[in-house]
Amino acid sequence: MFKIQVCAERFDTGKELDALSQQRTDIGALASFVGYVRDFNERPDVTALTLEHYPGMTEQQLQAITETAAERWPLLGGTIIHRIGRMEPGDPIVLVAVASAHRQAAFDACNFIMDYLKTRAPFWKKEHTLSGDYWVSSRPSDSQAAQRWDNNND
Amino acid sequence: MSELTHLDAKGQAHMVDVSAKSVTARTASASASITMQAATLKMIVEGRHAKGDVLATARIAGIQAAKRTPDLIPLCHPLMLSKVSVEFEPDTALPGIRVLVTCKLAGQTGVEMEALTGASVAALTLYDMCKAVDKTMLIGDIRVLTKQGGKSGDWVFDAAEAVSAQVVVESSVDQISTRPHERLQVRFFAELREQLKQDELAVDPAELKAAGFTVTVGGLSDWLRQAQPELDAVLDRAGLMVAVNHKMADNQVPVKAGDEVAFFPPVTGG
C-alpha cells in the first residue's frame, strides 16, 4: 500500500501526490510533508549536505514504520521517498504523503511517520559549511516528538 | 526439500502443466548489484558518461529482458506480465549500484524467473555501458528477495537462513573448512566508520565465549572495546545504536555466526 523509495535522484512532489489520488474516489484526504536542505543548521553557511544510509535496513525500517501507521489509522495509501547522496540548500530531501478518507487520520499518520523516520530510520547527515564539515547531531526534541506517539495508547 | 518440478518421473526435463492451477495475483522481486570504482559510480550518478544515460538504458534493458525470459530459460512458461519495474540505488558503500526488479502478473505461475532475468540483464547492461572506463566491475547478489501469490504463498529472503543453507551445501561439498561462516560481520556507519577508518570486521563468536563474554550484543560490544583500544572510545558514546540483521537491538539480544551486527550513531535523517 505504501511506496517506499530511497534514491539519489530528485523527486517531483506534484507527480507523486497525483499518483496517489489518481483514479481513486475513496480518498478524501491527502496530507504530505516535504523536508528541504537549509543553508543554516548547527553552523551558518551550509553549502551542501551528504546523506548516508544503511542499504537494506533503511528500507526495512521505513516499511515497518508504515505498517505501524496502517495499524493505527485507516489509511488508503502513501508514499515515502528519501534521498541519499549529496544535496544543496533548497533541495528536497524527503517526501512523506498519506492518503485516507478523512483529514485527521492523514495529518496524524503523516506526522507520526516523520517522527518515527527521524528517530528510527538509519540515515545520517553530514553538513558541509564554509567553516568545515561535521556530522549532524540528533536532537532531543526529535526523540520527544516520537515518544508522544508511544504514550498515546489508542 | 521439495522435489524438482521441472523433472518428470524418469528424471527427464519437461515443462510443468499449469492449466489446472488457479489464476492469482503474483509478484516477485529480485536484486543484483554491480560493484565498481568510486569514480565510475560518480560519473553515472552525475550523468556525465559519454555513452549517454546509463541508468535509463539499463532500466529499459531490464524490462525487455524480463519480457523475454521464456526465450532464455528453457522450461519457463511465456507470461503476460502486467508490470515490470527496474529501480537503481547508487550505493557509495559498495561502491556501485544495486538493482531491484519487481514483476507482476495475474496468472498461473510465479514470476521470480522474470525478476531474476531482469535484474541480471540490467546489471549486464550497466557493465556494457561503463566497460570503457572500468573493466574491473563485479556483478553479484543476484537473488530473489520476495515472492507473493500462488500455492506456495508469500516468501521473503532471509539472510540468516540463506547463510546457514550455504554452510550446509558447502560442508557437504568440501569438509575442509567453513571458517568465514563461523564468523559474524560487524559493520560501522557514518561518523563511527570515519573515526575507525574501517566499515566492517569479522568476529568469531567462539572467541567471545572463550574470553568469558556473553554471546550477545552487549558482550560483543564489551569484547570489541577491550580487544581494540580505538574501538573503546568510539563505541562509548551516548545514544549509540545497534542493529542485528537489520533490526534494532539492545544489549540483551543474542548474536551468532552469520549475523550482521551494525553499530551506528543516533540517526539524523528527514
TrEMBL record, chain A:
GO terms for molecular function: molybdopterin synthase activity. It is an enzyme of class 2 (transferase). The keyword Transferase applies. It comes from the Bacteria. InterPro entries: MoaE_sf (IPR036563), Mopterin_biosynth_MoaE (IPR003448). Pathway: Cofactor biosynthesis; molybdopterin biosynthesis. Belongs to the MoaE family. This is Molybdopterin synthase catalytic subunit. It comes from Nitrincola iocasae. The gene is moaE.
